[in-house]
Amino acid sequence: MMFTQQLKEEVEPIIESIYNDPFIQGMVRGDLSKEAVIHYLKADHLYLNEFAKIYSLLIPKLDDKEGIKFLLEQIDFVMNGEVTAHYTLADYAQVDYKTIIKDGEWYPTSDHYIKHMYFNAYRYSDAAFTICAMAPCPYVYQQVALKMKERHDFNGNPFKDWVDFYATEMKLLMEHLDGWVDEFAEHASEAERAVLTKNFKESCIHEKRFFNMAYTQETWESVVE
Ligand SMILES: Cc1ncc(C[n+]2csc(CCO)c2C)c(N)n1
Q1: Which of 20, 81, 145, 221 is most enclosed, with most CB atoms within 10 A?
Q2: Closest atom of ligand 1 to CA, residue 43
Q3: 207 is catalytic
Q4: Is 174 in contact with 131 (CB distance < 8 Å)?
């Protein structure tokens, strides 16, 4: 079995638990609180900007021209394309997207998640370590969206476009990310493979915490209340 296939099987219970969490269930029912959506957008706008910058940190770590071109496309996609999913959310919350992101905020959970990626980008010379910390970002969204679509009819649901976007648009990206990780894992040591696994699992848990952060309206102050 390919290394990334093994990783994906190991995190399936985490993804099922994210599906059952209140943020996603609120989307399934179409009654997620507008406050949760706004909190999510404020954090996610900043998250996407940093995600694009972390792609740029991978460029010097790669040698293949095609791979580098793909990363440049992804930077553009994160900065521009993914914003369409955010507009679906802003429309639901009946707020102007540009106004929301004007005062984006780093909350404890989103802050921790992005620093997990930066740490790996600076700590390890091989891109695979950072890619394992980044891959749950598209993978969790793809899998959660597929579960949503399989189990419910989204016709008439305000989040239909969001679900369709993540269910269909992540495939090519996952193929590239998996390819890089599998290639490295083939000749990696046991200890290196353990770090890759840990990075992937931790980011799946960060994804779960990110949705719950928005649902509970987390702030730095609320953590000590
Ligand atoms: C917390 C959080 N996690 C994942 C995504 C989805 N996402 C963000 S960047 C990207 C990959 C683009 O190359 C994907 C799928 C999100 N918006 N917010």
Answers
A1: 145
A2: 1
A3: yes
A4: no
ipTM tops 0.90 = yes
Average pLDDT, the chain: 95
- List the domains of the chain with CATH numbers: 3-47+84-216 (1.20.910.10)
Residue 196: band (very low, low, confident or very high) from pLDDT cuts 50, 70, 90:
very high
Torsion of CA 12, 55, 128, 24, to 10 degrees: -10
Share of the chain above pLDDT 70, in %: 100
Residue 169 dihedral angles phi and psi, to the nearest 5°: -90, 0
pLDDT for residue 101: 85
pTM given for the model: 0.97
Active-site residue 192, yes or no?
Answer: no
Residue 73: Cβ-neighbour burial (10 angstroms; 0-12, 13-18, 19+):
middle
DSSP assignment letter at 187: T
Task: Indicate the Cα dihedral angle 21, 46, 130, 195, nearest 10°.
Answer: -40
DSSP letter string, 93-149? HTS-HHHHHHT----HHHHHHHHHHHHHHHH-SSHHHHHHHHTHHHHHHHHHHHHHH
